[in-house]
């Protein structure tokens, strides 16, 4: 596609966009009496308009049904996780048996590691990307210590080569191969939060399996952004949060995938609770934990209805729009953003995200050598919402569900203006 740096071109793309009506389904923060230019869906997705009514429905059912709501609510609370796991099937490329929503991301990462990281004297190492999101680093560090190992020797980080920003797939595979006698788990982000690099999940998974290790992924920046095929790629487990591209709201329930070959095994090690128990006998209140023979067998507590309801409402929009169509629009908008940024003069930054659209999602990371924070402040003052990540990156993410080509163009105009006044 030939891009043109003009508002007329952006308007034309928006008119042709088959998903354009979804923008009206969202509430935009107001800045100076106008919709903000919100390009921060990588951090917190906007509120879908249908969330309010969905919450009010649960309040009304709680009022009217009280305890009978578990069976008698409009959406019975007993099965609440399934209202989210069903629409997630196409987004994650998994069967409903392999998916559930529960807890929050870091909690789920810990629970999955308790099942999939079972270090022995010989096989105790965890491989992850250097510069992983801090919560993931802390989770792995403390798990390793919890099992009595030293993080220094038990955690291997794959880094970019000197002078490079991105991690080469060949380097990841080479280290997995080299450590094949000692590797217990490969735990990678799907997309690195800082650079926006989308890793080769099937290649990493296959290499981990050849080395005799499990492969797990943190898909916080992937879920709702890039469609994946977790089942077919043979991923062992994955976890994600729902408040970024999935628009589930702050602190929304997290998601988890366990491959059918493990989820169907009731003997697979885990920590149990009654909501993971076979439903038929859950309320017999008897001794002996019998996990469900699917991903829900990792659940512990009663469904957190008020933590799931916004996600349930948001996922209705995903079902209607379709993740493939969203991804198509996303590639077009992010490529347009990249094209516009390349036209800028007099402003000193580098786009560190891969330039191949198959190796990135919606986000572009702009690395500033100097004045990055100052420029971020000027953007904020001009009504743009994007985020700043230390030590020097502004992340810009047009979300296909609610952003437009015109948003991207207005963003460009504002930076061009900042650049010309610098
Ligand atoms: C956003 C994000 C988190 C946040 O974890 P919570 O437990 O939801 O607070 C963790 N890991 C990654 C990679 C993230 O992008």
Automatic annotation (TrEMBL):
<feature type="binding site">
    <location>
        <begin position="133"/>
        <end position="136"/>
    </location>
    <ligand>
        <name>pyridoxal 5'-phosphate</name>
    </ligand>
</feature>
<feature type="binding site">
    <location>
        <position position="106"/>
    </location>
    <ligand>
        <name>pyridoxal 5'-phosphate</name>
    </ligand>
</feature>
<dbReference type="InterPro" id="IPR015424">
    <property type="entry name" value="PyrdxlP-dep_Trfase"/>
</dbReference>
<comment type="pathway">
    <text>Amino-acid degradation; L-kynurenine degradation; L-alanine and anthranilate from L-kynurenine: step 1/1.</text>
</comment>
<dbReference type="GO" id="GO:0043420">
    <property type="term" value="P:anthranilate metabolic process"/>
</dbReference>
<feature type="binding site">
    <location>
        <position position="302"/>
    </location>
    <ligand>
        <name>pyridoxal 5'-phosphate</name>
    </ligand>
</feature>
<comment type="subunit">
    <text>Homodimer.</text>
</comment>
<dbReference type="GO" id="GO:0009435">
    <property type="term" value="P:NAD+ biosynthetic process"/>
</dbReference>
<keyword id="KW-0663">Pyridoxal phosphate</keyword>
<feature type="binding site">
    <location>
        <position position="105"/>
    </location>
    <ligand>
        <name>pyridoxal 5'-phosphate</name>
    </ligand>
</feature>
<keyword id="KW-0662">Pyridine nucleotide biosynthesis</keyword>
<dbReference type="InterPro" id="IPR015422">
    <property type="entry name" value="PyrdxlP-dep_Trfase_small"/>
</dbReference>
<dbReference type="Pfam" id="PF22580">
    <property type="entry name" value="KYNU_C"/>
</dbReference>
<comment type="pathway">
    <text>Cofactor biosynthesis; NAD(+) biosynthesis; quinolinate from L-kynurenine: step 2/3.</text>
</comment>
<dbReference type="GO" id="GO:0005737">
    <property type="term" value="C:cytoplasm"/>
</dbReference>
<dbReference type="InterPro" id="IPR010111">
    <property type="entry name" value="Kynureninase"/>
</dbReference>
<protein>
    <recommendedName>
        <fullName>Kynureninase</fullName>
        <ecNumber>3.7.1.3</ecNumber>
    </recommendedName>
</protein>
<dbReference type="GO" id="GO:0030170">
    <property type="term" value="F:pyridoxal phosphate binding"/>
</dbReference>
<dbReference type="InterPro" id="IPR015421">
    <property type="entry name" value="PyrdxlP-dep_Trfase_major"/>
</dbReference>
<dbReference type="GO" id="GO:0019441">
    <property type="term" value="P:L-tryptophan catabolic process to kynurenine"/>
</dbReference>
<dbReference type="GO" id="GO:0019805">
    <property type="term" value="P:quinolinate biosynthetic process"/>
</dbReference>
<keyword id="KW-0378">Hydrolase</keyword>
<dbReference type="GO" id="GO:0097053">
    <property type="term" value="P:L-kynurenine catabolic process"/>
</dbReference>
<comment type="function">
    <text>Catalyzes the cleavage of L-kynurenine (L-Kyn) and L-3-hydroxykynurenine (L-3OHKyn) into anthranilic acid (AA) and 3-hydroxyanthranilic acid (3-OHAA), respectively.</text>
</comment>
<comment type="similarity">
    <text>Belongs to the kynureninase family.</text>
</comment>
<feature type="binding site">
    <location>
        <position position="274"/>
    </location>
    <ligand>
        <name>pyridoxal 5'-phosphate</name>
    </ligand>
</feature>
<feature type="modified residue" description="N6-(pyridoxal phosphate)lysine">
    <location>
        <position position="244"/>
    </location>
</feature>
<feature type="binding site">
    <location>
        <position position="221"/>
    </location>
    <ligand>
        <name>pyridoxal 5'-phosphate</name>
    </ligand>
</feature>
<feature type="binding site">
    <location>
        <position position="243"/>
    </location>
    <ligand>
        <name>pyridoxal 5'-phosphate</name>
    </ligand>
</feature>
<dbReference type="GO" id="GO:0030429">
    <property type="term" value="F:kynureninase activity"/>
</dbReference>
<feature type="binding site">
    <location>
        <position position="218"/>
    </location>
    <ligand>
        <name>pyridoxal 5'-phosphate</name>
    </ligand>
</feature>
């Amino acid at each position: 596609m030939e891009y043109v740096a003009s508002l007329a071109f952006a308007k034309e793309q928006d008119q042709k966009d088959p998903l354009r009506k979804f923008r009206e389904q969202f509430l935009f923060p107001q800045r100076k009496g106008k919709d903000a230019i919100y390009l921060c869906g990588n951090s917190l997705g906007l509120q879908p308009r249908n969330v309010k009514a969905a919450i009010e429905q649960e309040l009304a059912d709680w009022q009217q049904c009280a305890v009978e709501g578990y069976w008698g609510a409009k959406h019975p609370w007993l099965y609440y996780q399934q209202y989210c796991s069903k629409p997630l099937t196409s987004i994650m490329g998994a069967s409903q048996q392999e998916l559930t929503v529960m807890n929050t991301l870091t909690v789920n990462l810990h629970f999955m590691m308790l099942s999939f990281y079972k270090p022995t004297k010989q096989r105790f190492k965890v491989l992850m990307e250097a510069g992983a999101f801090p919560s993931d680093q802390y989770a792995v560090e403390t798990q390793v210590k919890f099992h009595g190992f030293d993080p220094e020797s038990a955690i291997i980080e794959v880094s970019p080569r000197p002078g490079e920003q991105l991690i080469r797939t060949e380097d990841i595979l080479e280290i997995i191969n080299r450590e094949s006698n000692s590797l217990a788990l490969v735990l990678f982000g799907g997309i690195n939060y800082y650079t926006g690099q989308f890793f080769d999940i099937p290649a990493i998974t296959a290499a981990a399996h050849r080395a005799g290790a499990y492969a797990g992924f943190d898909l916080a920046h992937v879920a709702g952004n890039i469609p994946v095929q977790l089942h077919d790629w043979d991923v062992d487990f994955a976890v994600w949060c729902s408040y970024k591209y999935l628009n589930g709201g702050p602190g929304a329930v997290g998601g988890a995938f366990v491959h059918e070959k493990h989820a169907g095994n009731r003997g697979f090690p885990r920590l149990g609770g009654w909501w993971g128990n076979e439903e038929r006998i859950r309320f017999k209140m008897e001794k002996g934990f019998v996990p469900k023979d699917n991903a829900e067998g990792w659940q512990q507590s009663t469904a957190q209805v008020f933590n799931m309801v916004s996600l349930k409402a948001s996922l209705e929009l995903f079902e209607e729009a379709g993740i493939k169509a969203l991804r198509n629009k996303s590639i077009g908008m992010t490529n347009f953003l990249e094209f516009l940024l390349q036209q800028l003069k007099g402003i000193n930054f580098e786009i560190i995200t891969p330039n191949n659209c198959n190796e990135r999602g919606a986000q572009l990371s702009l690395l500033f050598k100097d004045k990055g924070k100052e420029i971020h402040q000027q953007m904020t003052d001009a009504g743009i919402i994007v985020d700043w990540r230390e030590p020097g990156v502004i992340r810009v993410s047009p979300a296909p569900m609610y952003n437009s080509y015109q948003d991207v163009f207005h963003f460009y105009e504002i930076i061009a203006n900042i650049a010309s006044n610098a």
